[in-house]
Amino acid sequence: MTFFWAFVIGGLICVVGQLLMDLTTLTPAHVMVILVVAGAILDGFGLYEPLIKFAGAGASVPITSFGNSLVHGAMAEAQKEGLVGIITGIFEVTSAGISAAIIFSFLAALVFRARG
C-alpha cells in the first residue's frame, strides 16, 4: 500500500501543477513557485510532515517538499538560535541539494554542447 499512496499523492501534486498550467495563463515558473510556497505553508501549519509519513516519496520528491524543507529547517534553527537561525536553517537544510544541482549542472555542461 505504501507504493500505491506514494503514487496517488505524488500524482495529485503533479495534477494540480498541470491543471494550473493548462487552465490558467501561469507559466511553469509561476506554477513552480506556487507549489514551493504551498509546501512551505503546509509545513508551517504542521501538515506536510504527516503527509510525508503517509505517502513517503509521493510527498518528498515533488517540488512542494523543497518549500517544506525551507520552512522546516528555518523553524528548527529559529528555536535553537533565534532570528539568525531562520537564515542559517534555510541554508543548512537545503545546501546539499542545491550544491548537488550546481555540481551536476556544471558537469553536464562540460560533457554536452549547448545549442544556440
Automatic annotation (TrEMBL):
Bilayer-crossing residues are 27-47, 54-71, 83-112
- Coiled-coil intervals, chain numbering: none
Q: Which domain of life, per UniProt?
A: Bacteria
Q: Which UniProt keywords apply?
A: Membrane, Transmembrane, Transmembrane helix
Task: Fetch the Pfam families from UniProt.
Answer: SpoVAC_SpoVAEB
Q: What PANTHER family does UniProt report for this protein, alphabetically?
A: STAGE V SPORULATION PROTEIN AC-RELATED, STAGE V SPORULATION PROTEIN AEB
Enumerate the NCBIfam families for this protein. spore_V_AE
Name-wise, this protein is Stage V sporulation protein AE
What is the organism of origin for this protein?
Effusibacillus dendaii
